[in-house]
Amino acid sequence: MKKLLLSMLAFVAVTSCKEKEEPKAALTIPTSYTSTNYDANTATERALRTQLATLTTEMKTAEKGTALTSAKITELFNVGNPSLKSITGSYYVQKLEGQWFTELVNSSGKVYDPLKPNTTGGVFGARLLDAGGLETLQVIEKGLFGAAFYNYAVGLMNNNSTEKTIDQLVAIYGASPAFPNTNTAAKTPTPDAFIATYAARRDKNDGNGFYSKIKNTFLKAQAAVKAGSAYNAERDEAFTTLKIEMEKAVMATVIHYNFAALTKLSTTNPPATTLSGALHDLGEGVGFLHGFKAVPQAQRKITDAQIDEFLALIQNINNGKTEMFKFVSDPSSLAKIQTASTKIQALYGFTAAEMEDFKKNWIAEQAR
After folding, report:
1. In this structure, are residues 130 and 322 in contact, taking their beta carbons and an 8 Å threshold?
2. How far is residue 175's CA from residue 195's CA, in Å, rounded to a whole number?
3. Residue 298 to residues 110, 190, 294: CA-CA distances in angstroms?
């Protein structure tokens, strides 16, 4: 009887304790991003941004006819601690060092005509193309947005997160605490760069676009980390949203460039600059797509098989060889570009209205 009484008292005590537990307060999310230590926290990430910008600047000298050297390109890829190479997924490192750097250097200092393709590539209409008509420079630069910067970001998300971590994520995304939603230097002292620029270009500045969603999610992530471990679930939800919204912004940009290329390639008697501009557009899309193949599958929606399928269409791959030059000479091949856009639309569930919006650069449209 005594044991029974003690058990009943213990049950009542435990029940009373449970009844007194207060529910967790809802996370308070601010309307602006504030960080007193942002510059110090993001020194590494901003250095990486500078390293990629420096590599790109060097590569672009070949558009003016300068012959590049493998030694210089390799040096710029390896400089810094961390270096671009050290944060790039191994798949892309192998492609860069085993193929694209060599093709880039080999095509520099030469000229090219997509109607009379050669075996080395060269400059056509102020764009540096390889033998297949692919702008290798874009595959390197834009590919590193995903293979290096996005890859680095998801690595940060997988570690123990602090307020510094969120600052680092903002920086490697290409934004700043101001989140200006523009890369126009005349409009802000901290213009957007890298993935942030393209998220802004796909954003109508109505509060519902990619850039706005990503900014609001960063606000949530920062608030959750500041609020402590009780809000780890909210932090993780924010990280999941950041990943898919960044990926969607990049893939929407691939669609944008497909539309732009089709418009140029369908022009009557277009000059060389228009045709090279179209191949440039497609090269950007190839780079954006291909870079995600260096990111662990668990950190992205698109699969390797889907990337390969879309690349085969945009690069006009026949018997394993890129033949993008045929987009200039064979109008019947243009359907492949539209097919790629349709398949990307289906994968991410983009609406018809969104597809129309993707045709525009909203920073330019709204003079932001």
Report:
1. yes
2. 9
3. 42, 32, 12
132 contacts 119 by C-beta, under 8 angstroms: no
Give the range of the structural domain holding residue 103, as residue numbers without chain letter: 34-365
In a domain, 268, yes or no: yes
Query: What span, in angstroms and rounded, lies between the C-alpha atoms of 108 and 110?
Result: 5
Query: In the chain, how many domains are there?
Result: 1
Q: Which residue carries 């390109």 as its tokens?
A: 73
Render pLDDT for 96-138 as a digit per residue (tens, 0 to 9): 999 999 999 999 999 999 999 999 999 999 999 999 999 999 9
Between CA 34 and CA 39, with CA 37 as vertex, the angle to 5 degrees is 105
Q: How far is it, in rounded angstroms, from Cα 333 to Cα 347?
A: 23
Residue 20: per-residue pLDDT: 57
Residue 27 lies in a domain: no
Nearest to 251 by CA among 149, 345, 174: 345
Please state the φ and ψ torsions of residue 183, each to the nearest 5 degrees. -105, 15
The answer to whether the predicted template modeling score (pTM) of the entire model surpasses 0.70 is: yes
Structure tokens, 106: 């080999």
Strand 122-124 and strand 127-129: the pairing is antiparallel
Question: Does residue 17 lie in a domain region?
Answer: no
What confidence tier does 7 reach under pLDDT thresholds 50, 70, 90? low
Q: Answer whether residue 240 is part of any domain.
A: yes
User: How does pLDDT run across 194-253, given as a tens digit for each residue?
Assistant: 999 999 999 999 999 999 999 999 999 999 999 999 999 999 999 999 999 999 999 999
